[in-house]
Amino acid sequence: MTEVNSHRIEVATVDIRYGTELVLHKAQLKIFGGGVHLLIGLNGAGKSSLLRSMAGLQSIQGGTITLNGQDVHRMTAADRAQYLAFVASTPPRTSQLRVEEVLGLAAPASARIPKVLEQFGDARWLRRRLDALSDGEAQRVMFARAVLQGASWLFMDEPTAFLDVPSRKEFWKHAIEVAKNDTTIVLATHDYEHLANSVDLASVHLIKAKGIASLDPLESPLQWTKRMEG
Amino acid sequence: MADSMSRLQWLIGFGAFLALLLSHLMYGMVDVSLFAPPGSVHQEILMHVRVPRVLAAIAGGAGLSLCGLIMQTWFGNPLAGPSVLGVSSGAGLGVALLVLMGLTTSWWATAASAMAGSLLALILVLFVSHRFRTTTSLLIFGLMLNYVVGAMITVLQAEAQQDALQQFVFWGMGTFGHGSMATSLALCGAVLFAGMGLRTMHRDLDIWTLGPLTAQSMGVNNRTMRWRIVALAGLLTGGITAACGPVAFLGLATPHVVRLLTKERSHRVLIPLTALTGAILAMGADWVVKGFGSMEQGWPLNAVLSLIGGPMVIWVLVSKKDRLHD
Predict the structure, then answer these.
(1) Rounded alpha-carbon distances, angstroms, from residue A145 to A104, A118, A149, B209, B269
(2) Residues of chain A with C-beta less than 8 angstroms from the C-beta of B226
(3) Would you say residue A143 lies in a domain?
(4) CA A183 to chain centre
């Protein structure tokens, strides 16, 4: 292995700003590899911005974000893709690629493609075009794609926003299976009651304007909500 | 059922390409033999009129269609293209500045100026495009850009000398028939180079259809890709516009024709297929221009293309197959 062993992501005194609006100021957060880690917060608190920044996809206006000591914003996109995968909140709507092509882009000529797709969705989708699937189906394809990318860290921004309630439960079940196989999942979601009921979370962090507070992952989700309001 | 392009389809494509190429060389105001002896009138016509014209049609058709394809992919917008987004207008302004002010008649200088104009227009479109979330607002921006640049050109026309004005108006109608052998070969070289450059980017272009954020997370370097697309589309549109005039709709329409003909959506296939189809459509349109014209000039190319292209845009807008998501 190279110097980058996927053990720890560290957010140090990070500022995120849109124009003059300061979303996060001197944010601090440390996440150790393994398990499912949850970011919660009110709308506009900066969860998504922080998540994108941690995945190296959005620039920050101060501080550093490091993966085992290496600055994620100084890595090339190709290098980052080996360690950090990302699932956006909305699935693509205009791509007309076939599902097998989409998955092949993440794992060229991989024999695992049908199996992974079957795991998270339906292997019969392989020959269908992405824009012919429903938003929920497309999102599950995008999740399978992220898993096939083979990165040790998987970031997800509201991945269940487009799923119905039964699909959400399924989705979290699969995500948890992925986390058991050496992949660390960091996600932002409002759907944490479903999630907390199906898995013991490794850590929970409340994003607020004042800063990031780490919560007790064994507490009930109701308690987290109260702290969010308080 | 085969989803991919079958060998037969490619064969039909190349057959049509070859048939159009040969017919353009042989038939016109006079019919010539392809094997005319050196120094004969027929050979003069071939080398100075027919070959440059058909090469310009091939390069112009293929080049503008490739520009349309990558612009549609980049903006995630099925109605993007060099003429609708004002890139051709930018090139036109570059030409107008030199021709109407009577600064030079050199094609190479005009081409350089046209390229600068189309690059500027494209950078402007890119710069504002992230503010537009919908397909149509980007198009309205392109439309406005076309108006503003058109107004500038009108002012230049008002100030121009009579012969410069006449030259410019002819150029503005669009034609594949004004270039010399040298300019046509230069265009072909540029289009070939751009096509091969794009072919190396086919995987990144595919990934790009999944959205900028996902593309970046899969290892695509947004900035590098953006500048490559600007450079390729800007320089191609500029060069072709300088030689053939502001050719309407071809860049927008060809990718749609390709999507009708095949179910393939990977850029590995779309890139060569779009270039081939663009060349075929351009040669086809030039047959209409040559065939229906009662005079030497024939029908204006842009009139022919707009008659076909305009309804096509309306069809895409109305069609439910392409989701526009406004």
Answers:
(1) 8, 12, 6, 14, 22
(2) none
(3) no
(4) 11
Reference B279, options B82, B51, B46, B60; nearest CA is: B60
- Answer yes or no: CATH 3.60.130.10 is held by domain B7-318: no
We report the CATH number of the domain holding residue A20 as 3.40.50.300
Residue A134 lies in a domain: no
Is A105 in Cβ contact with B206 (below 8 Å)?
Answer: yes
Residue A179: which domain range?
8-91+152-229
The answer to the question of residue A225 being in a domain is yes
Q: Give the ranges where B130-200 is alpha helix by DSSP (H).
A: 135-159, 162-173, 181-200
In a domain, A111, yes or no: no
Question: Which of A88, A97, A127 is opposite residue B211, by nearest beta carbon?
Answer: A88
Question: Which of helix, strand or coil describes residue B211?
Answer: coil
Give chain A's mean pLDDT: 89
Residue that is written with structure tokens 């944490």 in the block: A192
Which tokens sit at B218?
Answer: 């899969």
CA B244 – CA B56 distance, rounded (Å): 8
Task: Answer yes or no: do B265 and A55 touch at CB < 8 A.
Answer: no
Q: Do B217 and A81 touch (CB under 8 A)?
A: yes
Chain A hits for B213, Cβ within 8 Å: 52, 57, 86, 88
- Whether residue A81 and residue B265 make contact (CB cut-off 8 A), yes or no, is no
| Nearest CB neighbour to A77, from listed B3, B76, B221 | B221
Is residue B292 scored above 70 in pLDDT? no
Instruction: End-to-end CA distance of chain A: give it in Å, rounded.
Output: 45
Distance CA A148, CA A113 (A): 7
CA distances from B103 to B106, B113, B162, B242 (A): 9, 11, 14, 15
Closest alpha carbon to A51 in A13, A86, A21: A86
Tokens of B73: 């992919």
Interface test with chain B among A18, A89, A102, A105, by most B beta carbons within 10 Å: A105
Spatial CA neighbour of A195 closest among A229, A154, A158: A158
Position A19: which residue type? G
> Minimal Cα–Cα distance from B77 to chain A, Å?
8
Chain B residues whose CB is inside 8 A of the A76 CB are 221
pLDDT band at B269 (very low <50, low <70, confident <90, very high): very high
Query: Does B28 have pLDDT greater than 90?
Result: no
- The residue extents of the domains of chain B are 7-318
* Model confidence pLDDT, tens digit, residues B217-241: 999 998 899 999 999 999 999 999 9
Rg (C-alpha) for chain A, rounded Å, is 17
Domain count within chain A: 1
Summarised one tens digit per residue, pLDDT across range B86-104 is 999 999 999 999 989 888 7
Count of CB pairs separated by less than 8 Å, A with B? 68
